[in-house]
């Protein structure tokens, strides 16, 4: 094990501050985390419909130990609870997904979505304000025109930095079912929003219409046996996207083939292993997240017990399969009973596509190095990690004799689950959401 | 391995068993079936259930049902896993499915062939005219039940009857079932009661074969003749049924006067909440919806002997189209007593 930790590329240490609140309400539960394309900003969405954006501190030579810490940059209420009068249903304000748009000017743009509505937010800074208007004074009060005797040119004066978020577009009334994912196209003009049965294509400028490109709703809802769980655009090919299903399959579609992409051009599914078949085989095969690699050659999927890496050129089986928490395989009955089996874990690539990461229970998260085939289990908790100390790898004891530092399967806390994680696009900085706490880890600097 | 704060239940065998012939597999299957059923109904009660979750649970239910059909016949002495009292009847349906009884097999195959565990309720995004059934149900008047609801009720009744039938040990079915004689008396002469079931089945217009109707009817008559409860007397049966709670509730509802005593049949029926009138639901869903609506009889204490003798008067002996529903529910009501005792 000594050898293992030395060769492990990433030894993460906790930040000096852990961004959280001691007493939290349901609304504080973080529901999504996402770095922007440069890694300078980190956005989180919570169940209360709020978006909190963190910005990385600029490196300063005077305080090298504070290299690149993230501080709150902007907070705004993205979605409010709504009421659908037609169906007499409440629409939750929980933010399901946030996706950043690439930066094209000084402002930042992100898409945030709840179950029904996608919104485009502009986050901009204001550090100057104009002063010296003719028709109104500096307080804003209108001046009496008869008192104006001379004209002046307003000048921009510096002011305290103010970050404001404004909703620039609202894309609504396009989804009958709950939106589970959004993905921005590499053309930077369109994006897709996906619910349980449909995928819609939007233009970022047009809010009053969208194109439906995938529809798996059967004519008779009684025949429904499969739903869409996630969808993503290819990182380079603007005509290609993939969507995953609750039956463990992934379909790759080419929008150039037809207006309606119900017919896939590639179908990825691994045949079921008859030796591991159980009553829960279908449930645990349901894919909860799908992510293209940065280079566009691979696809990663997360189901309940494993993470799989697929080669886009090979449809019949995954390239690599990683067991996240196989010790839960014998506990599926109980996990079904307490609903944990329906938890939707996300997965994420690192910048170079060499390491993948996903969450687990007991505030554990797992990393798999694709090259060395090594893996590590780490814990995001305040109790078990001192500030600036290297995180100690954790181990779950499956059976038999439990060692001193190990934790047994029956002692795992299934209410502490890490569903949302994200990785900095270029550096080894990760953000992990544990209920209402956000942990940001970075690798040790030698 | 439980969520914090959650009550510990009797866990099934943790190791997943893939060997179908093992009794462990069967107990796991039954456990999964009952849990899935509970989850499914709980999901339907939510204003907006998660479609993914509902589909996964429905698929699991379907798979478990299919496995039951494919599984070899299991020794009836294998006891089902412990379940909460509220799911006791579900359990009896589950054990019924094991038994390759002719009377049940056809209805079961109907269960399989129908888009079981219908996803009608999953289409929660339909226009308001198809508002969630739970909202409609509470407003519906008992007397205005449609014939379709008669059918679903009768299907529910027949399924309970066949379920009880198939839990019977294979021993003599010729001996008369003494306790049920009183039940037969409750709902009128036995042939009358059975005729009601048959009538209800015939009333339905679509989806069901004549063959299945006949067989369900046969199943109910067979139940009457079964000796399952031959040792027990009526008094024994109702000994532990406490109507004190019922009486208290009836007083609250203003249905009992100052004299107290056993409520009349109509009053009792008024107390029972109406069931859903969803004609297009397939067999299993209507069965469970009807059962779900009935109050748990485990809260009732023992009846006095005088009360028990007054039970036959609970339901009107007269059969009319309006009373079909009431008598059906009455029978169901009492069937639950039997099962839970």
TrEMBL record, chain A:
SMART domains: WD40. Belongs to the phosphatase 2A regulatory subunit B family. InterPro entries: PP2A_PR55, PP2A_PR55_CS, WD40/YVTN_repeat-like_dom_sf, WD40_repeat_dom_sf, WD40_rpt. PROSITE patterns: PR55_1 (PS01024). It comes from the Eukaryota. It comes from Pagothenia borchgrevinki. This is Serine/threonine-protein phosphatase 2A 55 kDa regulatory subunit B. PP2A consists of a common heterodimeric core enzyme, composed of a 36 kDa catalytic subunit (subunit C) and a 65 kDa constant regulatory subunit (PR65 or subunit A), that associates with a variety of regulatory subunits. GO terms for cellular component: protein phosphatase type 2A complex. Coiled coil: none annotated. Keywords: Repeat, WD repeat. Gene3D superfamilies: YVTN repeat-like/Quinoprotein amine dehydrogenase (2.130.10.10). Transmembrane segments: none annotated. PANTHER family: PROTEIN PHOSPHATASE PP2A REGULATORY SUBUNIT B.
UniProtKB/TrEMBL annotation, chain B:
Residues 25-72 form the SERTA domain. Pfam families: SERTA. Residues 1-22 are annotated as: Disordered. It comes from the Eukaryota. Residues 1-10 have a biased composition (Basic residues). This is SERTA domain-containing protein. It comes from Pagothenia borchgrevinki.
């Amino acid at each position: 094990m000594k050898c293992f930790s030395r060769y492990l590329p990433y030894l993460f240490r906790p930040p000096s501050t852990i961004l959280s609140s001691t007493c939290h309400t349901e609304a504080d539960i973080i529901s999504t985390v996402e770095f922007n394309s440069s890694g300078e900003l980190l956005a989180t969405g919570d169940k209360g419909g709020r978006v909190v954006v963190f910005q990385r501190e600029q490196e300063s030579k005077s305080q090298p130990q504070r290299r690149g810490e993230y501080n709150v940059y902007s907070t705004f209420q993205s979605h409010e609870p709504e009421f659908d009068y037609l169906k007499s249903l409440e629409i939750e304000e929980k933010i399901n997904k946030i996706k950043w748009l690439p930066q094209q000017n000084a402002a930042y743009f992100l898409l945030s979505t709840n179950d029904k509505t996608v919104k485009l937010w502009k986050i901009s800074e204001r550090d100057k304000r104009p002063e010296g208007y003719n028709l109104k004074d500096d307080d804003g009060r209108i001046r009496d025109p008869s008192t104006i005797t001379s004209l002046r040119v307003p000048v921009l004066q510096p002011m305290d930095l103010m970050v404001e978020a404004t909703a620039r577009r609202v894309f609504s009334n396009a989804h009958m079912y709950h939106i589970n994912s959004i993905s921005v196209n590499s053309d930077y003009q369109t994006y897709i929003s996906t619910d349980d049965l449909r995928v819609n294509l939007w233009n970022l400028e047009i809010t009053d219409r969208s194109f439906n490109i995938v529809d798996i709703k059967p004519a008779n809802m009684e025949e429904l046996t499969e739903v869409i769980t996630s969808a993503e655009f290819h990182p380079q090919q603007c005509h290609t996207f993939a969507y995953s299903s609750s039956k463990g399959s992934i379909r790759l579609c080419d929008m150039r083939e037809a207006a309606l992409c119900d017919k896939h051009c590639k179908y990825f599914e691994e045949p079921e292993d008859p030796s591991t078949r159980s009553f829960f085989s279908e449930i645990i095969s349901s894919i909860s997240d799908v992510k293209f690699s940065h280079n566009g050659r691979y696809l990663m999927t997360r189901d309940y017990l494993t993470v799989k890496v697929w080669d886009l050129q090979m449809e019949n089986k995954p390239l690599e399969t990683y067991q996240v928490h196989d010790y839960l395989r014998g506990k599926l009955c109980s996990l079904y009973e307490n609903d944990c089996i329906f938890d939707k874990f996300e997965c994420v690539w690192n910048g170079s596509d060499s390491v993948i990461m996903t969450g687990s229970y007991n505030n554990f998260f797992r990393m798999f190095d694709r090259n060395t085939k090594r893996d590590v289990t780490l814990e995001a908790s305040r109790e078990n990690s001192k500030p600036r100390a290297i995180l100690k790898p954790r181990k779950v004891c499956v059976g038999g004799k439990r060692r001193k530092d190990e934790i047994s399967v029956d002692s795992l806390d299934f209410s502490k689950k890490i569903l949302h994680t994200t990785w900095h696009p270029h550096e080894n900085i990760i953000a992990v959401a544990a209920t209402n706490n956000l942990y940001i880890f970075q690798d040790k600097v030698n | 391995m439980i969520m914090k704060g959650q009550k510990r239940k009797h866990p099934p065998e943790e190791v997943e068993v893939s060997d179908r012939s093992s009794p462990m597999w069967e107990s796991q299957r039954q456990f999964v079936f009952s849990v899935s059923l509970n989850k499914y109904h709980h999901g339907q009660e939510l204003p907006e259930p998660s479609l993914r979750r509902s589909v996964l649970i429905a698929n699991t239910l379907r798979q478990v049902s299919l496995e039951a059909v494919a599984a070899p016949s299991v020794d009836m002495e294998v006891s089902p896993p412990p379940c909460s009292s509220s799911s006791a009847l579900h359990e009896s349906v589950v054990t019924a499915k094991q038994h390759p009884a002719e009377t049940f097999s056809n209805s079961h195959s109907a269960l399989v062939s129908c888009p079981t565990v219908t996803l009608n309720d999953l289409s929660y995004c339909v226009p308001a005219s198809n508002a969630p059934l739970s909202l409609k149900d509470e407003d519906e008047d008992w007397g205005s039940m449609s014939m379709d609801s008669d059918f679903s009720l009768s299907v529910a009744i027949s399924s309970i009857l066949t379920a009880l039938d198939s839990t019977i040990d294979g021993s003599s079915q010729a001996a008369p079932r003494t306790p049920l004689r009183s039940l037969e008396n409750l709902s009128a002469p036995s042939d009358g009661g059975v005729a009601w079931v048959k009538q209800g089945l015939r009333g339905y217009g679509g989806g069901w074969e004549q063959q299945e109707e006949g067989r369900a009817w046969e199943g109910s008559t067979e139940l009457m003749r079964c000796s399952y409860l031959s040792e027990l007397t009526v008094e024994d049966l109702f000994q532990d049924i406490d109507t004190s709670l019922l009486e208290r509730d009836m007083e609250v509802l203003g249905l009992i006067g100052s004299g107290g005593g056993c409520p009349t049949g109509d009053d009792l029926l008024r107390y029972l909440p109406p069931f859903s009138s969803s004609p297009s639901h397939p067999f299993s869903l209507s069965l469970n919806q009807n059962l779900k609506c009935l109050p748990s009889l485990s809260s009732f204490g023992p009846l006095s002997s005088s009360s028990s003798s007054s039970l036959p008067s609970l339901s009107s002996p007269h059969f009319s189209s309006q009373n079909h529903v009431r008598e059906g529910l009455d029978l169901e009501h009492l069937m639950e007593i039997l099962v839970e005792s």
